[in-house]
Amino acid sequence: MQDTHALRAAFARSLSAMYGSEVPAYNTLVDVSTAVNADHLAAHPDTAERLGRIDRVTAERHGAIRVGTARELARVAQVFAALGMEPVGFYDLRGDAATSLPIVSTAFRPTTKEALAINPFRVFCSVLVTDDRRYFDEALQAELDAFLADRELFGDDVVALAEKAEREGGLEDAEATEFLALATACFELSDEPVDRAWYERLSTISGVAADIGGVRATHINHLTPRVLDIDDLYRRMTDRGIAMIDEIQGPPAWEGPDVLLRQTSFKALAERRRFREVDGSVVDGTLSVRFGEVEQRGIALTPKGRDLYDRLIVEIDERSAGMTADERNQVKLDVWRANWPVDEDGLAEAGLAFFEWVDGVRTPIVYEDFLPRSAAGIFASNLAHAGSRDVTLEGSHRDEAWLAEAMGRTVHDPMELYAAQEKASRDAMEETR
């Protein structure tokens, strides 16, 4: 019998092996990440594991996928439920920026401290908003909805095994092997020819829309390792001649405590794809949609801390408009130093971050989730062009309740999960006194 946690760990390994075979640069990213972590631990033995043991950090991954409909979202939610991964958070990536991202997202992940410690695999999952008139007029929506309704991303065989795994808390070895193979295959890059005219119509609106609705299968968009020093990794990847996006998304590197999440990636690579032309002929070509993301995780912030973070990001935007990436980073540093406590004591005293108590010692709770602005920034940095949308029209409504109804599952509030973890540790400490 392979229980839920064993299935999740095995799936993460299977997906990583598959993705590495499809995107060799991912293997380079993993190798560099592993070296960065080992070197950081050697240089900072007293603090390197403050936000997680090195074995967990080095094994940690998050994936990203994109689906087109509520039904597809519900079926992939069932697949992840078999792995003990529940939907956490609502992220609206449509935003106000010029770059066109007609998607909303959630993250599937373990929700308990114990499950995260066993294997913290997460998948950031975006779903296309086809009825948002800023992007799709009524006629194009009808075509797009018909195209999406005519495909099946997650077959009945894999969904049935997922239902059994969720119901019974795991699968017998033979069924587990079958389920893992089927589930991994759902995210392989298809060799089926892409309808070039249809794909390019969607691309004029959004490269993300084309990646979701312009093909008949989904795929892993990126698979992300975790590092302890993302600035070191950025330098090492650049030194290897790998083109990175212009900046590291999220907070700056500074002398104080790391909070939330810092992310960057190598740029989307041109991958061989086959195209079907209008005359029915099939020709070779390339698409650049998959990239190599990497992340450095910090301390989870309370609602008060998150409000401060969001306000400071707005201030940084205003002060750094028109600047280069290096100039913008200096503005980030100036703003951070002027507004954040310089140590964990200050964060705790100001009620800005979540902590727990282990054997009477206060330790920070790691941020396990995502930042919509950073995710949008990573996606946008890997698009060939900004796309288009009509800002004079109203966007369609999407929220956490819509996601929950689409999946038939509770969408957890990440703040509530962190608060519950902090409270449980306080209660346990009180009981021992």
TrEMBL record:
Source organism: Propioniciclava sinopodophylli
Entries under Gene3D superfamilies matching the protein: Uncharacterised protein PF07063, DUF1338 (3.10.180.80)
Lineage, uppermost ranks: Bacteria, Bacillati, Actinomycetota, Actinomycetes, Propionibacteriales
Keyword flag Oxidoreductase: yes
UniProt-recorded name of the protein: 2-oxoadipate dioxygenase/decarboxylase
Keywords: Dioxygenase, Iron, Oxidoreductase
SMART domains to which the protein is assigned, alphabetical: DUF1338 (SM01150)
InterPro entries per the UniProt record, alphabetical: HGLS, YdcJ_bac-like
Molecular-function GO terms, alphabetical: dioxygenase activity
